[in-house]
Specification:
single chain, 222 residues, alpha/beta, Rossmann fold, 10-stranded mixed sheet, 19% helix, 37% strand, Thi_PPkinase, EC 2.7.6.2, nucleotide-binding, thiamine binding
Length: 222
Amino acid sequence: MTIQKRKVKKLNVLVGGPTQQWPDTLKSGQIEGPWIGVDRGAIRLLQLGIKPEIAVGDFDSTAQEELARVKEQITHIETFPPEKDLTDTQIGVITAIRYFKFEQLAIYGATGGRMDHLLANIFLPLEPRFRPYVTNIKLIDRQNTITYYQPGMHEIKKEPNKKYLAFVTLTKVDGLTLFDEKYPLNDYSSGHPTSWASNEFNGDLNHFKFDSGIVAVIQSRD
């Protein structure tokens, strides 16, 4: 069955990272918006009582009874060969772009486990095919929220359960300035990635700017 592309405010993707890294809102099924389940992520959503609109993946390590449940409950399923040039997260984002116009794409299950997968997921928005969506993509787990920014002046709002704030220059960056954070920074430029870690908010709203490149902002807690 073909899904007609439609506009949504928030779209969620669940990939197969460790469930221990899920935020409590996911474990309790309190996240709003439609879902795409990638490989084992589709099975885990069904176990939570959430029916994803699309399931994608190679399903090569899926038990027959689990795959049968996916086919029974999810109308739109797309399968990929086990040997492919795409990660599960790339497949999820490609599927999201193909079938939805979203304001925010929240990706869960993308952290924990293998370090190569974590790095691939963090750097994913830098790929040319995903660059138009870089500011729409957000990675979320139980301790961290990662958002991406393009050059300009920005205001960031503190999440209620987060204490720490980090600014990560993922590319060559010019003019990074932190105006009102606990530890200010003035006109920083660098040709290599740098993580300005363990900063903190002053108040509920803080501001920063930069002139070129891509910066990831991480709100986190212990």
